[in-house]
């Protein structure tokens, strides 16, 4: 059985404080061989790194969520680059534009996103992009910034329109699907997934949010990514094994700093350096 990857979760959130060991153990038992816990505030990076250092299967990012953009405009590109040098920091972000909640001024969100793009361009670590109700501005900003120099990126927890997905693919990016794709009313999102190249797709939980069916309404956790993968496999008319293998291959291609994992016949995880 291939390994599955949860490319986006928030293990530092208080929801997991009391049972983080069990949450990671359940994920690993379910076949989730790698998790990336995503930064939402640079000021909290030490705690995120501590989690990544504790668990061999957990990696992390560094960055500021658009909700918090105006709180961390003093975080420089150089600081992001420096912090990302930690061996277990494998991505920049999450940064982006969120016009649905508008918790930070839109100008601050754009400035923050551009700074994160600059850090991703320098480090060539993937930028984890949050985009909600901002399709046109996001597409325009990505085109403008990509013209200045290439950077890897993923549109995480994708729930935008088909046009933004296509722009992301056109610019060399990846698209990640969360538990939203399992919801009964998400047929339009499943249609978008069918239109995208299979070698650009990732899966994630965005835990503790957006638990997939059959756990919808409960606290999400990385082990539940298997349900998202199941529905995505059905949507794309793939076997579950093939979907696991494809999305994991895509993950390790994009998140190239993460040592590639395989499994031996006993199911023990081994890193590429052990083979």
Describe the protein's topology:
Blueprint: E1 4-9, H1 20-29, E2 32-37, H2 45-54, E3 58-62, H3 77-83, E4 89-98, H4 106-123, E5 127-132, H5 135-148, E6 153-155, H6 162-170, E7 174-177, H7 187-195, E8 201-203, H8 225-235, H9 240-254, E9 261-263, E10 269-271
Commentary on this structure:
This protein has nine helices and ten strands. With 275 residues, the protein is α/β, with parallel strands linked by helices. Strand 2 (32-37), helix 2 (45-54) and strand 3 form a beta-alpha-beta unit. 37% of the residues lie in helices and 18% in strands. It has an eight-stranded parallel beta sheet with strand order 1-2-3-4-5-6-7-8. The chain has a two-stranded antiparallel sheet with strand order 9-10. The protein is globular. The protein has one domain: Metal-dependent hydrolases (TIM Barrel, Alpha-Beta Barrel), CATH 3.20.20.
Quick recap:
With 275 residues, the protein is α/β, with parallel strands linked by helices. The chain is 37% helix and 18% strand.
In terms of quaternary structure, the protein is: single chain
Q: Percent range for helical residues?
A: 25-40%
| N-to-C span | 17 Å
- CATH homologous superfamily grouping: Metal-dependent hydrolases
Low-confidence residue ranges: 263-268
Mean pLDDT: 95
- Please state roughly what percent of the residues sit in beta strands, choosing from under 5%, 5-15%, 15-25%, 25-35%, 35-45% or over 45%: 15-25%
CATH class: Alpha Beta
